[in-house]
Amino acid sequence: MSTVLKWIAVFISCLVLQSTLMNAVSILGITPDVTVIALFLLAINHGSLAGLYAGFLLGLSQDLYSPSILGQQALAKTLVGAATGLFNVKVMRTDPLLRMFLLLLAFIFHDSIFLIASVIKNSSSLSLLGKELITETIPRSLYSMLLLLLLYAWSYFVAPFFKK
Amino acid sequence: MLWIFQFIYRHHTLSSLFLTVILSLWMLSRSLDQQQRLSRTLMFSLFYPFQYATSMTGRIKNVFAENKKLRHQVAELAVRNAELEEYSAENARLNKLLSFKKDSPYSLKAAHVVIREPSYQMRSIVIDAGKEDGVLQFMPVVTQDGIVGKVTQVLRNLSLVQLIKDPSCRTSVMIKPSRAVGILETDEGDRYYIRLRSHEDVAENDTIITSGLGGIFPPGLNAGKVDLIAKDKNPLFKRVYIKPFVNFDRIEEVFVILLPPQWSAFQSEKDSLITEE
Q: Domain boundaries in chain A?
């Protein structure tokens, strides 16, 4: 129960951070997505089932609060949560470098679904998808990977120092 | 039917994925209007408990603040109420005194009791009226209920009043119905009595008034009522116990009757005789 509450707190914090602080640290209009990072970490640690439900609820919350198409974020995050959960720690041991690569894939997967849903809903051209992936998704995933790297650096090097 | 549940249970991850994806796609397939309605409904049902809790927290906080403020006001009003009750009681007392002053045939000077003798047997009081107010020694002091005592010492703005509770204070009184005259005495201020001849007509609850023969109190002032009639040591007399009308423990305002003692007219002759001797 405490784990569930902890993750709920993490997701609420991430939603608040995403809509407030993240805009302030954007570089050339690229903003890291901490909600995807949090979902990725949850799915890696707790598996597909937790990942897909958390992704669905997190996505639905974002859909309700942001002026996007209802169900777009929910669908993208559900699938990302479920897919990332396949690489969870109970199934395979992954080192931080591999995890960062997985995060990159998760971002591309997430944005692809998001954009496909958007293209279908708005009947736009599919060429928009490739352009968005290159100009938006890749830089955002790299920025987010940097954040994940800092998080790992903190948990591997700084946090043990404080524990001692 | 059972096999469906068994399948869902066995493949719960897949079933969950299927369910959430179908739900997401269903939401996506709605028109913009329907999406907005659905969004509002979901917002209301999902976040209403949190919003309600937040607003309740705010309300509770306000209630606490209001409660604190009201407690403060209650304390203030309690003090104010006590003050007003005191004023009301004083007003009632002063009204009585005023009507007494109007009805009285004598010239009266109202005064407050400023000092009480600090002993259980209060024999004297100090009032805030003195020479400047026309008060002289041996002037009688009364309340609307009856006699209190006499002025024994006069200063500029204060006077010492010897109460009739003092055993050394003796007052000439009269049984009102029978006009039998006696001296009102007291033993240590606990009990007041008059010694009357055995044949004098007196009954319980008869009113006792001043006789005017002592030279200090004018005649007809209320002094008390007969409480008990008992035998005296001397068989020629009987002892009539009196209950005074004045409650000496509760005196706050008094009147000095601005009436010099009857013997003051002879005071200069008395003084000249002493000088000649």
A: 2-163
In sequence order, the 6+-apart residues with CB closer than 8 A to the CB of B205 are: B225, B226
Is there a contact between B232 and B239 (Cβ–Cβ < 8 Å)?
yes
pLDDT tens-place string over residues A98-155: 888 888 888 888 888 888 888 887 777 777 777 888 888 888 888 888 888 888 888 8
pLDDT at position A67: 59
SS (H, E, C) A2-57: HHHHHHHHHHHHHHHHHHCHHHHCCECCECCCHHHHHHHHHHHHHCHHHHHHHHHH
Of B16, B26, B28, the CB nearest to A72: B28
Contacts of B42 in chain A (CB under 8 A): 60, 64
Domains of chain B with CATH codes: 108-165 (2.40.10.340), 171-255 (2.40.10.350)
Alpha-carbon gap: A114 to the closest alpha carbon of chain B (Å): 11
B16 and A60 in contact by Cβ < 8 A? no
Q: Which residues of chain B have pLDDT under 50?
A: none
What tokens were used for A86? 């396949």
User: Which residues from chain B sit within 8 angstroms of residue A64, using beta carbons?
Assistant: 39, 42-43, 46
Measured between CA atoms, how close is B6 to chain A, in angstroms? Answer: 17
User: Could you say which of A60, A70, A75 has the minimum Cβ distance to residue B21?
Assistant: A75
**Beta-carbon contacts of residue B141 (< 8 Å; ≥ 6 apart):** B127, B147, B148, B149, B150, B151, B161, B254, B255, B256, B257
**Partner A contacted by B73 (CB < 8 A):** no
Cβ contact A54:A35 at 8 Å: no
State how far the Cα of B205 lies from the Cα of B228, in Å rounded to an integer.
8
**Which class in CATH covers the domain with range A2-163?**
mainly alpha
- pLDDT per residue as tens digits for the range B30-42: 887 888 888 878 7
In which element (H, E) is residue B268 found? helix B267-276
Tell me the ipTM for this assembly.
0.81
Per-residue pLDDT tens over the stretch A30-81 = 888 888 989 998 998 888 888 999 999 988 888 887 656 788 888 999 999 9
**B127 near B108, Cβ under 8 Å?**
no
Count of CB atoms within 10 A of residue B132's CB? 10
pLDDT for position A137: 85
pLDDT in tens, A81-110: 999 888 888 777 777 788 888 888 888 888
Q: Give the separation between CA B238 and CA A59, rounded to whole angstroms.
A: 110
Strand, helix or coil at B186? strand
